Amino acid sequence: MKYIDEFRDGEVARAIAASIKAEVDAGASYHIMEFCGGHTHAISRYGLEDLLPANVRMIHGPGCPVCVLPIGRIDAAIWLARQPGVILCTYGDMLRVPGSKRVSLLKAKAEGCDIRMVYSTMDALKLATTHPDQQVVFFAIGFETTTPPTAVAIKQAQALGLTNFSVFCNHVLTPSAITQILDSPEVRELGTVKLDAFIGPAHVSTIIGSRPYEYFAEEYQRPVVIAGFEPLDVMQAVRMLVRQINDGRFEVENEFSRAVTRDGNEKAKSLVAEMFELRRVFEWRGLGMVPYSALRLKEPYAAWDAERRWDVPQDTPADNKACECGAILRGVKKPLDCKLFGTVCTPENPMGSCMVSAEGACAAYWTYGRFRDAAPGDAEGPEPESDE
Amino acid sequence: MTLPRRAHPRPLDIAHGRVDLTHGGGGRAMAQLVEELFIKAFDNPALNQRNDQAAFDVPAGRMVMTTDGYVISPLFFPGGDIGSLAVHGTVNDVAMAGAVPLSLSAGFIIEEGFPLADLKRIVDSMARASREAGVPVVTGDTKVVEKGKGDGIFITTAGIGMVPPGVEISGDKAQAGDAILISGTMGDHGVAVMSQRESLGFETDILSDSAALHTMVAEMIKTSPGIHVLRDPTRGGLAATLNEIATQSGIGMLIEENLVPVRPEVRGACELLGLDPLYVANEGKLICICAEADAEVVLAVMRAHPLGENAARIGTCRADSHHFVQMKTGMGGMRVVDWLAGEQLPRIC
């Protein structure tokens, strides 16, 4: 497959791995957080950690839009879906995430709510035109990548004069979450957690550009390399970060130059700026209340805001007390440090945010990484012989 | 004066008619539907007796029986439809015991208002698949449910078959050191079906691989009666099926990503939709687990069969108390190929 295979070449990966191994300082350790779930997924799916030296540790950050949505917002979406005449639309990943009492949208659907999985905001808009007697609510989630399509859908609804379309807006902002992590006491003051560098978001950066990361590279003195979601992108980003750490540099570098510019997508940015404003505070699953970290529709677009059209509950129920997602997302703990991991919390029955989506740190570890903890010698056997 | 005796003065209006509740009511309308549509299409001596059961002789030996339900949407997809799929799926379930399929049953649960033309198309396709496989549908049933209480049409089947003497194939017989073979490319059926779902709207030339595998199985068994496990990786794809076998047999597996054949079009579609081809359904492929010593000859037999041209060895069974299915990735790393958690849903970002 063109433009894909080039970035999944095992030979090249091994060459990069060899140069990382040669360049790391054996006496030092390198703690690199990949912020995005897309990177976590690539690392797990392609087994990239096996290619890295033992003193390069990847910390899986909170950049999974499904994982960071708090229980209260899921409950609110289910509440909306239960209103008479409402069709609630959302992206597929969102359906399985449990809210309070473990009710997910999938379960609400089974109860009889009209909940549809859509692939784009345009699908939701189409439903509004074909179901004029019903209220179509788009449950909008995601980082800066998915915000512009939501904006476009509202613009189109406005142009079409659709009064039965609205958006339950949960769009969140990447830089505020990274700042929150860097400001957490473990990282900033106590120094108990080492967080040396960041792999910056791929798709998010195509919209916002590389400029927004310059502030915290400078302020927190942490190098950032923006990288694509393919396995070679991740390997190359690790090599670039190792070099920055070795040199004592803390710059924003762009590995994903085939798609990301310094200023990003001006058209998308100005559309978002025109239509959305910052929420003073927004709850993130795992990170808690994060100031100025999410968007809501501005007053001129209130007619398309589901939170203004309905009296949507604003409760903030807490996660399970034993759940360690917050600490895992900040790199303080690993999935195995959580008592719930693999016992009551599994991908089939997730308790916390990190287990809900394939991009979550716990789910990725459960799905792709568990064999590393198999007893020594247990999982050894003859290597398969190639017949090609 | 006597009138000529005609059970149904007006033939079924296949072109414009629709199934209504009388077609399941046990009266003349139902008799007519059975006569003019089902018996005409399936036409075989056991069915033609028109009894509530089929009577036939069976040879002595070990028999297998399977049952299956088909609820696919859309009903017609590139490379097949719910009718042919019902035959292939049931024949394959019988064949995966190494058995020779003998006969099938078919139950139709039809929603009121379903076009007779579509029903005929499905039944004809089912009859064609059954004739091509040489496995007759010997008994059947029709029910009609009210509008809104079914999704067009559901088909349930049963299948029976005879296991040749000396063949002992079962999901719990895989052993450490056994070779893992698959008969062709993964994910064709699932992607072909998904491409037809209205909300996806992408165009592809990918056809479902829906096919009856019993003739290939017969060849494989003739050459190597000691095959340990056969299973068709349908729902949940290769990943789910390997995990089932690993758990049943109490072993682990190690496969190699680069050895699993996947069509470029299927890879492309999966890339677009955020799916993993290892988890996408197949309806005309099988997994074979056999002793290392038999691997090459079984693979050669599979490749010589038209349905096994792309057969490949993908890995090896090994001792592992966790029963993990692991995969060496194309990058050279390792990962667990786990059960699917819930349904495979596209990722967002």
Automatic annotation (TrEMBL), chain A:
<keyword id="KW-0408">Iron</keyword>
<dbReference type="GO" id="GO:0051539">
    <property type="term" value="F:4 iron, 4 sulfur cluster binding"/>
</dbReference>
<dbReference type="InterPro" id="IPR002780">
    <property type="entry name" value="Hyd_form_HypD"/>
</dbReference>
<dbReference type="InterPro" id="IPR042243">
    <property type="entry name" value="HypD_1"/>
</dbReference>
<dbReference type="GO" id="GO:0070025">
    <property type="term" value="F:carbon monoxide binding"/>
</dbReference>
<dbReference type="GO" id="GO:0051604">
    <property type="term" value="P:protein maturation"/>
</dbReference>
<dbReference type="Pfam" id="PF01924">
    <property type="entry name" value="HypD"/>
</dbReference>
<dbReference type="InterPro" id="IPR042244">
    <property type="entry name" value="HypD_2_sf"/>
</dbReference>
<keyword id="KW-0479">Metal-binding</keyword>
<dbReference type="GO" id="GO:0005506">
    <property type="term" value="F:iron ion binding"/>
</dbReference>
<comment type="similarity">
    <text>Belongs to the HypD family.</text>
</comment>
<protein>
    <recommendedName>
        <fullName>Hydrogenase maturation factor</fullName>
    </recommendedName>
</protein>
UniProtKB/TrEMBL annotation, chain B:
<dbReference type="GO" id="GO:0051604">
    <property type="term" value="P:protein maturation"/>
</dbReference>
<comment type="similarity">
    <text>Belongs to the HypE family.</text>
</comment>
<protein>
    <submittedName>
        <fullName>Hydrogenase expression/formation protein HypE</fullName>
    </submittedName>
</protein>
<feature type="domain" description="PurM-like C-terminal">
    <location>
        <begin position="175"/>
        <end position="327"/>
    </location>
</feature>
<dbReference type="Pfam" id="PF00586">
    <property type="entry name" value="AIRS"/>
</dbReference>
<dbReference type="InterPro" id="IPR011854">
    <property type="entry name" value="HypE"/>
</dbReference>
<dbReference type="InterPro" id="IPR010918">
    <property type="entry name" value="PurM-like_C_dom"/>
</dbReference>
<dbReference type="InterPro" id="IPR016188">
    <property type="entry name" value="PurM-like_N"/>
</dbReference>
<feature type="domain" description="PurM-like N-terminal">
    <location>
        <begin position="52"/>
        <end position="163"/>
    </location>
</feature>
<dbReference type="InterPro" id="IPR036921">
    <property type="entry name" value="PurM-like_N_sf"/>
</dbReference>
<dbReference type="InterPro" id="IPR036676">
    <property type="entry name" value="PurM-like_C_sf"/>
</dbReference>
<dbReference type="Pfam" id="PF02769">
    <property type="entry name" value="AIRS_C"/>
</dbReference>
